[in-house]
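[job 0417] fold request received: ATPase dynein-related AAA domain-containing protein
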Amino acid sequence: MGQPRGKREKGDRCNRTKKADPIAQDVRAVGEEEARNLENEIAILVSQEERRNWAEQCSIEKKELEIYKDKIEKENQIKQEQIMLNLSQEREDWIAEANFQKQEFELQKNWLEKEGERINHNRNSLEEKEKELIRIKKEINCYTSLLTLVEDRDRESDIEHSSIPKSTNLEPEDLGDRWIEMLESKNQILPESIAIGYLVSTITALCSGSMVLLNGTVGVGKSSMVRKSAKLLGGNSEIIPIRPSWLDPSDLLGFFDPLSETFRPSSFTTALKKAAKYPDRPFLICLDELNLARIENYGADLLSILEYSKDKAGAEDKKRTLSLYSEDIEIHLWDKLKLLRAEENLTIEQKLLIAQLDRTLSTMKSECEIPQNLILVGTLNSDETTYDLSPKVIDRSYVITYPLVDFKAVLSKGKNNISEQLSISKFQEKVKVCMDCMDESTNFLPAFLVDPTDIPSRINDSWKKDWARIIKWNEDYISYLGIPLGHRVKRDYQMFFAVSHCLGITNANPKRCLSYFILAKLLPRISFFKDKDKKLEYLCQQWIEEIRQDYLIGDEGYILEELERQILDSGRRNVRYWG
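[job 0417] inference complete; emitting structure tokens
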């Protein structure tokens, strides 16, 4: 499309004008160029004027700045002079003050030196007096220690025999019949199977070197049973509390102190020494709460000695000893004692050392002999703070499980005053004859069992019958349900049977001996895990029924009921005598 008509006409007019007036255009161009040149000249003139004005202004400002700078410098100089003047005055004052303080310090120094000399003099005098006081105290301690050693020795040698009850002529046959009555006289109310089982187990442990374990809840009278039965048996007792931290035999036996070169005995070792003073009296040592720590750790040496204490004929001639410390240490102490005794003009310290060495070597040698009259008893608790017993301990022990306390039975029982004290001196020949009937030598029995009595020949047949039954149980039940029987059990039942017969336990009912042996020696071995086909549960239930029906006389500890409850408990994975 073309441009609009108006614009086209205007352009045409401009073209005609340009063509018509070329001279005017040239004049206009020249005028414009001259105007531009004039403007440039004017601009140059203006710029030069401004530059001159700016230079003059800078010159004026520079002069003013120099004047101000001179003024400032003069003021600073005046201030500096004033400061120096002030410092000079302060320095003079400080020097004067320092001189004054120096004079005071010199005076104080002189005074302190004099006081120091006086204090040093007093200190030297005091040190001399302290040395004299220490020497006097050492002499006092030495004499006190010597006096203590003498008193201890006198006390050990002069223990009144009245502390151990005197025995009377109570016949051994009457002991089994009167035992419950005698316990009741001491406020020990127990079921017959518990009381008689404890008596037979304790006397058997005395003769064979085994251990008796009293199992039950807290507060049923286990520890008091040990104390009171010891008195009734004409002996004495010692309760040794076990601590959970016991990990080493030294916790039970004591330890050798290398600093003082003496042995620090424990209450257990002291009790052994006390028991040895009266070898004709039974002495019960009770390890209270035995399973608070592992007896395999702290009592390993003791268990080994009890194991072989009276195992064979003539074994009593061999000394049963516990190693308390190294034999080399004992030799060293003997050598040191000989050297001290050979010296003359001994000091108090040397005399005290001789007394200590003499006491250690005479009363606490490196080996401690286990007396033949020792009966080791342990009490057990079953809770989260105790450890399980190992098969080794169970195999060497007779276990008596206490039932819960029957307060009605306790309140209904009266107190019988028994003036007689028991003596077991007549057991020796009776047990010897009884054991001879079973073709066993009995020279290892304690020396306080005397007076021979004829034993019927039926004893051997009765014992063999019971032992055959025990062997069959081991083959059919025990070897599958827990700890199998070993050779030691034969010896244990021979002794158990002989003691039961001498106590008159089997007179009324021959099954009583085997019944008590089942409770104390066989049932504690039960410990097995349930299987899917329930063969072991059925086997255990079968043995329980056989025992209950034909052999067990009384189960006041409710042991069989507890085992049956565990068998029927579907949520339980194992069955254990120990719960």
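[job 0417] notes: Residues 172-180+192-410 form a domain with the Rossmann fold fold (CATH 3.40.50.300). The radius of gyration is 55 Å.
[job 0417] exit 0
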